[in-house]
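Postdoc handover notes: sequence design on the structure in folder B. Input tokens:
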């Protein structure tokens, strides 16, 4: 999942402090994967806001316990750790191979 053109982050020392989380649930609602802060390693150094504007990506690797034919709900959130903005996304995916 890619977010392109994301702007408006509160800058601190010229850097954007971006948070990102994601979860994947199966058709019963059981959470198969969850990470509450994918960019935790950047809490002290931040991101170049021009790179954030160009693209922020969250990637999902499909593997066990996902199964062929299964339908899963992928939720993602991008937020400003120094401000109030956030983007929420939800995507249904079906495993074909």
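Designed sequence:
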């Amino acid at each position: 999942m890619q977010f392109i053109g994301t702007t408006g982050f509160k800058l601190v020392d010229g850097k954007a402090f971006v948070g990102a989380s994601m979860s994947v649930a199966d058709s019963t609602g059981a959470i198969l994967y969850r990470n509450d802060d994918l960019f935790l390693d950047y809490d002290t150094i931040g991101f170049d806001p021009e790179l954030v504007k160009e693209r922020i990506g969250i990637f999902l690797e499909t593997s066990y316990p996902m199964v062929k034919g299964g339908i899963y709900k992928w939720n993602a959130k991008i937020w400003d750790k120094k401000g109030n903005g956030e983007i929420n996304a939800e995507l249904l995916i079906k495993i074909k191979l």
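Context for whoever picks this up: The helical segments are 49-54. Don't rerun without checking with the PI first.
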